[in-house]
Amino acid sequence: MSKQKSSSWKDSIQTFGRSLLLPIALLAPIGMVMGICSALTQSYMVERFPFLGNEAVSTVITSLQSITSIVFNNIPILFAMGVAQGMAKHEKGIAVFASVVGYLTLNVVMNVYLTVTGTLADSATMAQMGQGVVLGTQTVRLEALGGLIAGLVAAKVADKFYRVELPLAFAFFGGKKSIPIITFVVMIPIGLVVPIIWSGVTAVLTRLSFVFTAPAIGASIYYTLNRMLIPFGLHHVLASLVRFTEAGGVYMINGTEYVGILNAMNEVLFNLGPDSPYWAELMPTLSSYLGGAQMLTTLFRIPAIGLAMYKTSFLKNRKMAKGVVLTCALTAFLGNITEPMEFSFLFISPPLFILYCVLCGIGMLPYQFLNISIGYIRGTIFDFGIFGLLYENTHWVSLIFLGIINFFLFYFVFKWFIQKYNLETPGREPFEVEESASLLLKEKDWPGIAAIVVEGLGGKDNIVNVENCISRLRIDLKDPELVNQVRLKDSGCAGIFFPSKNHIHVVFGPHVEFVRHAVDDLLKKS
Predict the structure, then answer these.
(1) CA–centroid distance for 156 within its chain
(2) String of b and e for 255-274 (b: at least 16 CB within 10 Å)?
(3) 259 three-class SS
(4) 156, 406, 410, 517: which has the fewest Cβ within 10 Å?
(5) Structure pTM?
(6) Domains, the chain, ranges and CATH?
(7) What CA–CA distance (Å, rounded) separates 297 from 338?
(8) pLDDT per position as a tens digit, 298-340
(9) How many angstroms separate the CA atoms of 321 and 325, rounded?
(10) Angle between the 92-116 and 178-207 helix axes, to the nearest 10 degrees?
(11) What is the end-to-end Cα distance of the chain in Å, rounded?
(12) Which residues, including other chains, have CB under 8 Å from residue 501's CB and lie 6 or more apart?
């Protein structure tokens, strides 16, 4: 692969990762509120804190939970729009519209495939079959991946066909109007292929499920794979198999057979209690697949990753980084919603995400040997308080001990990896600029800055396309020889560099979006 193609590929990956920041920025604070509300409405919380059962209090909490849940129930469509907006170079608004069309089409085509082939699962087995109801349609449950596919297709179609010309009879449907139409058509074959792939993956997970319950190491293997499947939405399939089917084991308790991890957990946790011999026998194993194990991630690993990102952020960006990572960490800590933090580095560095998944499995290895016996499912700080501190024989001190080890392991590994490979995690964007760096920036004279930028780039005729990311203007040029870098620096920019021959980056830091709008306005003038 040539150096130019390699640079272009790297830029595309970085642009893709940055395009997810918009939905992630929405998920983090709303997820934190939703997680708290969800925890406060659990029956075990109401039993221990009766005021939560007050009609007025309960109504407020459940209403707020319903309002915030709409965002998380529609993560895929948010990702579709975010990716389309971020990846499309032309007609971004139409691309966003087309991404929604594409996502709706994808789901209904998959529903048609499942119906025609007779593989549409009933409500009792939907989760185990990797299916679910999305926007009123039962379909393959792709989660965020479905939105990413729709967004990428819409962006690609927008850039390729926004100027397409059709014969006179169909001229009305040409140009930008063709983008949602072509996206609709392209998503049909994709929707027919995906269920075939998903059914195969689901079958493999089912056949290999005996591995997940292997003594000692089964939970570690399960948790590693559980994290790896998050970007594809298949972690729900894996969790359902272990929780509700023979894949999670069959447990004989007082002469009654309980199938699956969760059914056995419910019997031991809620009916038999800590004094039962089955507690010591089964709870360390059962909880290693449920809330107890999840607490290692929500209470220790995610905060450690956040701290590593904060400590590796550039000093002048640290205040901004603090707000991002703190919100993501609290979202997991309070609500068991880990995706905002995980997605913040998943697409920036897939190898780091794989390392994260492997470390999650390794960090689980001592769990069962320490006899940790904390339920329930979610793994939040509230679950720790209720099922760890208020129940007996939970060995919650051992969880904290193991959690601290996990914390330092994840902190130092992430800190090293981020610095070693210079990842652009929150706060490490390549700018270090303050408002006082330039009088124009200090006065927020965006039109004045834009005039200098256009002049420094060789004039309007030399500019092919203008985009921006978090910190930089990204401009395609006709002739890079016409660029006057001395003049460009008069704009107050923090840096200038050419990632490829006809492509220049001009760094403005957090002000870049306003500069971009001013440049666009200037270019539109005759």
Answers:
(1) 21
(2) eeebbbbbbbbebbbeebee
(3) strand
(4) 517
(5) 0.67
(6) 13-207 (no CATH), 212-420 (no CATH), 435-524 (3.30.1360.60)
(7) 8
(8) 999 999 999 999 999 988 778 778 877 888 888 888 878 787 7
(9) 6
(10) 50
(11) 41
(12) 4, 480
